[in-house]
Amino acid sequence: MKRLFFTTVGTSSLRELPKEMRSASNEEKYLYITNQLKRLYRQEPKLVEPYSAELKSLLRMKITAQDLVQLICTDTEAGILCGKIIQEFLQNEIGCEVQFVKIEGLQVHDARLFRNLGVRKYLEQLLVTYDKYQYSHQILMNLTGGFKSVIPYSTIASMLLKIPAFYVFEFSEELIPLPAVPITVDYSIFEQYPEKFEELIQEGVLPEEVFYDGIPFEERPRLHLLVDKERRHVTLSGLGELLWYLYIADQPELLTTDLPAEEKEIKIRNHHGQDRLKQLAEKLAGCEYVISMQCTNFNPHAKSFIHELIEPDSLIAVDLKSDAGYSLLIKTTARNGVELREISKIIAKRYQ
């Protein structure tokens, strides 16, 4: 299987610059270091190690032209420069594919920006990479060098996602695998308030009073690691996003029904809107998550097609084109509130 190295990039490539080059332009630094790396590597591969902690560990992991390297760079001039230097070396000397990714907010000058944006964007990128490549590549996390402040998050993520992680101490020659520690995650807070987290993910940010409404005060300390609060608004933290991803991934696939559309039970009482409801019901009968439908109380003031969720398995859909608000009570294949919300989104997207 092909390998993907998820590698954060630090600024160690600039440490070996001679004094007279330290005030040079970035272009001059780039040319000097890339030429040095090429010359030294062709002379003896180990000679490039003092120039880059990231390359040191990649070479120890015996990187080849068949591998893929994703360079995760800080949102700084020096970080981008070092990332471009490493990218040039890997592409031209090793011959492997390199993806260059700059992470917004990943810097050391503004702790609030790092915490509220940088960490979240970094973990988002890791999850995007994991989703895209988990079946086609063996993903390996290179913790050597890079941005030291994200190492704790990288370590937690590697354990939760079961991604092998490796590092080389600065003055060591040995490639050290990070030991796998069994971690059990308590998802009960997500199970209690899934709609809160779904709304937060959909909106991106919520007023504190909206997010915490309905959550008892004694429960709120359990949310401290999952959300960030600033100026009376709440966002999902980087760790919260990672854990929510794992929680959703851990849910079983949605059940479908084998009933053909024409055999699904449809009960519609006689009234002046029955033809409209019958047309809607016949359309919904084609949905693989719908088991049966029946007429229910009208909802003339409904604002959305999916008017109400009735856990664990039913929902009310409303014909919004009718002033009377003709409504159907729909029984679905959902087994719990999380699945019901997911099915309601699918039905709304397809049929409203």
List the helices and strands and how they pair.
Layout: E1 2-9, H1 26-43, H2 53-60, E2 68-73, H3 77-94, E3 97-102, H4 111-133, E4 137-142, H5 151-161, E5 165-167, E6 176-177, H6 188-192, H7 194-203, E7 206-207, H8 208-212, E8 227-230, E9 233-236, H9 238-249, E10 265-267, H10 274-284, E11 290-296, E12 306-310, E13 314-318, E14 327-332, H11 337-351
Parallel strand pairs: 1-2, 1-4, 2-3, 4-5, 10-11
Antiparallel strand pairs: 5-6, 7-9, 8-9, 11-14, 12-13, 13-14
Description of the molecule:
With 352 residues, this protein is an alpha/beta fold. The protein folds into 3 domains: 2-177, Hypothetical protein VC1899 like domain (Restriction endonuclease-like) (Rossmann fold, 3-Layer(aba) Sandwich), CATH 3.40.50.10770; 188-249; 261-351, Alpha-Beta Plaits (2-Layer Sandwich), CATH 3.30.70. 39% of the residues lie in helices and 19% in strands. It is built from 11 helices and 14 strands. It has helices at 26-43, 53-60, 77-94, 111-133, 151-161, 188-192, 194-203, 208-212, 238-249, 274-284, 337-351, and strands at 2-9, 68-73, 97-102, 137-142, 165-167, 176-177, 206-207, 227-230, 233-236, 265-267, 290-296, 306-310, 314-318, 327-332. A 6-stranded mixed beta sheet has the order 3-2-1-4-5-6, sandwiched between helices. Helix 10 links the parallel strand 10 and strand 11. The mean pLDDT is 89.
